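Exam prep: given the inputs below (a chain plus zinc ion), describe the expected output before reading on.
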Amino acid sequence: MKFDIKKGPVNSKKADVLTIALNHRNQVINPELFDKDTLAHVKKFLALGDLANEVGKASNILGNELFARIVLVNIGDIELATNKQIFTAIKSVANLIKQLNIKNHSISFDQFLSTSKSYHQIAEYFSRAFIDATYLINSQKTTKKEPIKVFVNTIFYNGKDTNDLRLGLKHGTAIANGANLTKDLGNLPPNICTPTYLATIAKKVASSYGMKAKIYDQKQIEKLKMGSFLSVAQGSREAPKFIVVESLKGPKNKKPIVLIGKGITFDAGGISIKPSPDMDEMKYDMCGAATVLGTMKTIGELSLPLNIIFLIPSCENLPDGKAVKPGDIVKSMSGQTIEILNTDAEGRLILCDALTYAERYKPEAVIDIATLTGACVIALGHHATGLFSNDESLTEELKSAGIKSLDEAWPMPLWDEYQSQLNSNFADMANIGGRAAGSITAACFLSRFAKQYKWAHLDIAGTAWVSGKEKGGTGRPVPLLSQYLIDKIKK
Ligand code: BES
Ligand code: MN
Ligand code: ZN
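Solution:
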């Protein structure tokens, strides 16, 4: 996928497809941007009244001499259109034209702009939409799906300053590439995407972008005294890994930001085994880890001048004669003891030790990303990631990064009242807090290991992948985290 920026009238270049944006009345926006012939052709078609007046809808019609096809996309009243409407419309265009046999596509950036909009952001949506649309799941098919042809998008822009446009396209490209890595890892089967495999990818990404990777194996994890993490790993024959990547490209004295991803490469529930239906989807239980690796790729591609540490505790959660049992009490790296009442609440057990490990960096902020609770899906559905934090400004930063990138996370309460649900008669705490407020009590559990710094927890159980016919990873929340990190540089 390529993006060229061009000045001048749209008809100065022939193209296989031209996209034209329409307003809420199905009229061409800024008609002066197009030549008479093309405009007359489109108006004639619109006069038939066949086109439904539906915001976000893209339709392909026969073109003329200059443009073999014309795609008409309704973006609504441009002064009132939200970023989400514009992104949805561009995605419809991308999804439509990826199926066409074309080499090049022209589109006018000017049509999508208005006084209230960030040019940078709109440009970012352009590159994200086109790269995202061409993503294919192919690695395990013997007959490969035909990869979508690389086509050139010529973006006409007649404003003075193209910097915002260029930078937006660049950021969007890096974000989409990072998200595609996240999707790839999530979509792999759990017999391939093991903790060892994740470690290999981490080393690979780190070495491509001048970052330092260190992989702790079972023995070294024992030395770190990560008793809680290891209790989950003990029921599996796959070797657990604790992955640490350091990307220190910011000012020397600046405290780092730490990202931690849950890397359960398969979650059968352990002895508290899950029911069979849809259990295959628990291969996606490493999507937190995959998000961390995808974000690593994005910030590597952009060589952001930041200090960032990436941590991934990774293992499987399986039933076995040696597996941890309900009633077992384990000692975490922090020294706090945990009574395991349900072995299926394993995410928090591996994350808590990574949170303690993060203390050594005296971090500016720590963010963990995890497919942590089914309860989060009940609370927020599949649209928003659950956002929990012990710091109000961090909450605001993540929430607004989610809104900007259209990869939303929404705040949930983390009040002290919920903590007592984790009381245990036998250890410092239990690993579950009952049915009520399941995603909150899971976050409460983590908060007990995150007292030394500003911390946020993103529960991506509802947003990391989609089920059903279109089953697949979404690459979320790579856009949100990338936006959060990009915004950090401006500060
Ligand atoms: N990985 C699951 C959470 C999950 C379940 C994500 C379904 C997406 C869809 C997690 O390890 C888990 O099993 N959580 C339990 C916690 C419970 C035992 C307190 C859950 O949500 O049922
Ligand atoms: Mn589980
Ligand atoms: Zn899990």
